[in-house]
Amino acid sequence: MTETPRLTHRRVLNLALPIVLSNATVPILGAVDTGVVGQLGAAAPIGAVGIGAVVLSAIYWVFGFLRMGTVGLTAQAIGQGDKGEVAALLSRALMIGIGAGVILIAVQALIFAAAFAVAPTSDEVETLAREYMAIRIWSAPAAIALYGITGWLIAAERTRAVLVLQLWMNGLNIGLDLWFVLGLGWGVPGVALATFLAEWSGLALGLYLCRAAFAVPAWRDWGRVFDRVRLWNMALVNRDILIRSLLLESIILSFMFWGAKFGDVPLAANQILIQFLHITAFGLDGFAFSAEALVGQAKGARRPDMLRRSALLTGGWALAVVLLLSVVFALFGGAIIDLMTTAPQVQQEARRYLPWLILTPIVGVGAWMLDGVFVGATATRDMRNMMAVSTVIYFTAVLLLAPAFGNHGLWAAMLISFAARGITLGLRYPSVERAAA
To answer: What does pTM read for this prediction?
Structure first.
């Protein structure tokens, strides 16, 4: 077994900061996608790219369990010093990702039909969106397999490689966007083709970045890769994370749908304020991902003391980040709102609910960081169960508060759900340390 590096603040920051920088590139790509089709001088292409990207992103997001499950299992194998299992886990993750993508390609007609049944659009937007999705769906194997690669790299504490991967993909995507749409005049299909090529090239680069795993013969030791016990354990971990993610998605979607009942202006205000949640997530992801890797290695090494220190160090940095974010939102939240919309009614309405967003980072930090701890420890059954409890608490709060307090009640219910997740996971934390012992 290799000697475990000392757990220091520098080590945490080396893990976290590349993820934070990587996350910062995501909204830039979205803005360029929208901007290049906006130069076509019509509304339909903008709507088509928007709805097509949302549909595919939502579907791919479901497979986010592959990243989280791969981090936890791989980090534990690293902690155990089992290089063969580390390599075999990458093979399993790649096969699951590519297989899932092939299935999505096979059922694309059903996906498109369901998407436009749920979100009907004009004939022109639907036609263009179908063109966009029909191209992008062919990179589904690459897009989903990249979840596994990303998780494997995070577990190995190679977050700089994750940053390189994200910069390459998004940079290539932006460059091809500009060339295909503005240079060649390919319109919406050009945007889709740019993403298609970026995702497949990203998979190629990801495999290169993981080349150390392919130097270990176990990556193609099919008896080990398809070992029934290990596959079943991976399936259980991924199943629990999937259920947890679907429950979380039900909260987010119901929040938006319920907000629509209060009218167009509150709905628009909520859509703007949700971006503050995204900013918070981008800031905390680096430290949550660090917790996944470090806690997983500590559990694999059977070091409950190191596990606790991992949770405390990453949690301490996360607390500093959320306090900073809350101050920024308090001082500059109004200016951020004004940048996002020029409609005076929406600006005024968003400011009414801004105090909830100032509180959100502080209230939600426990849920975000304990998710990372439980992913690393692969205590996914507890994650699933506590998410179920929190979901029931959220919907109960909505039913009690929204009718009485309107949109304020809806935001209160959202914060209650964050607090419930943090508290319930916190109550289960001692069992994580016991398991590591």
So the answer is: 0.89
